[in-house]
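Sequence, please.
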């Protein structure tokens, strides 16, 4: 069942037809001043302006939107001139901006001033700009056939250039027409890069475990590669350096010689893994290199030049007494028993450890 007076047609000449929504306008509050020819619209600033009501003057950027009162204030030939009057909420001042059909621009009439960007040269051949012929150029083309031909050729060149630009934009947009293919391509490239990143991370972890580094290894850069190429490793050593290196490996106290090798029990041999052997070998090599380089500088006894220094001769002669002299000097009051003990006594041997001592140049 239809409602009251709904779905019925009333002809224009009907007497006493019903009326609906005559108390309000279709645009609502935007048309409160429609009787004065004013309509409230959303206006966007075409350029930055300085507000003259603010103290100090404040700048409002291009693109800021306001609720403006739109009103027709005149005509330029058959084109209407519109006025947009808006309120700055920060200071409460009113601005008025009008259209300028003659120059295809906007003009600030009241309450503000346009921001000055400096002198600009307008290029008629710039992309996106339309060239409008002046009345003088039109009259010249009407009177001069050659000027008219040149103008048409110039217009054709501009049209061709614009067509090529549109085709280029279509080609660029065609690449992103299918999102699935583009997404699959990007994911395929990312998978390849991710494999490389995983290999690099695995190599870094291996270096950290091998050298027992407690720090993070960063990626190699071109500067690091160039600096590493300037370093020379394994240069040929001279004879003096080789002899000094040989002395640096000589222990300060040699190992004692054991007469009876049976008394020494060999250490039990345990089977090690290849990874443990390689790690131990690397650690020992690094340790020996550090110890040798340090001892060659710090230990004065390893310097061969110190061993060749001449000693100061004070004119004192030292002589060793042989066994006969010792017997002659021995006191005569010793008994025969003590003499027999002296003759039969076996000379004591020096410990093997003393034989391994390094001979020093001191007296």
């Amino acid at each position: 069942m239809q409602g009251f007076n709904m779905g019925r047609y009333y002809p224009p000449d009907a007497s006493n037809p019903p009326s609906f929504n005559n108390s309000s306008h279709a645009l609502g509050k935007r048309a409160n001043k429609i009787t004065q020819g004013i309509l409230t619209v959303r206006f966007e600033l075409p350029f930055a302006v300085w507000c003259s009501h603010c103290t100090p003057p404040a700048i409002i950027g291009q693109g800021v939107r306001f609720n403006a009162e739109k009103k027709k204030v005149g005509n330029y030939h058959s084109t209407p001139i519109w006025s947009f009057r808006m309120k700055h909420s920060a200071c409460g001042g009113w601005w008025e901006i009008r259209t300028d059909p003659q120059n295809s621009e906007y003009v600030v009439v009241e309450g503000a001033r346009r921001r000055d960007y400096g002198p600009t040269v307008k290029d008629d051949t710039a992309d996106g700009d339309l060239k409008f012929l002046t009345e003088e150029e039109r009259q010249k083309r009407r009177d001069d056939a050659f000027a008219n031909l040149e103008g048409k050729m110039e217009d054709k060149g501009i049209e061709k250039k614009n067509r090529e630009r549109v085709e280029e934009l279509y080609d660029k947009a065609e690449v992103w027409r299918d999102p699935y293919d583009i997404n699959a391509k990007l994911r395929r490239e990312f998978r390849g890069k991710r494999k490389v990143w995983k290999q690099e991370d695995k190599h870094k972890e291996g270096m950290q475990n091998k050298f027992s580094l407690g720090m993070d290894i960063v990626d190699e850069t071109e500067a690091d590669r160039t600096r590493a190429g300037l370093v020379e490793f394994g240069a040929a050593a001279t004879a003096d350096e080789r002899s000094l290196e040989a002395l640096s490996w000589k222990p300060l106290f040699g190992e004692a010689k054991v007469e009876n090798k049976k008394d020494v029990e060999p250490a039990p041999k345990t089977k090690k893994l290849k990874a443990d052997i390689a790690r131990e070998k690397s650690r020992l090599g690094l340790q020996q290199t550090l110890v040798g380089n340090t001892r060659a500088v710090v230990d004065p006894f390893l310097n061969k030049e110190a061993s060749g220094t001449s000693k100061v001769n004070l004119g004192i002669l030292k002589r060793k007494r042989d066994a006969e002299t010792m017997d002659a000097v021995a006191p005569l009051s010793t008994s025969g028993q003590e003499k027999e003990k002296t003759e039969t006594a076996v000379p004591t041997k020096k410990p093997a450890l003393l034989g391994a001592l390094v001979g020093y140049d001191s007296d």
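The longest helix spans residues 179-211.
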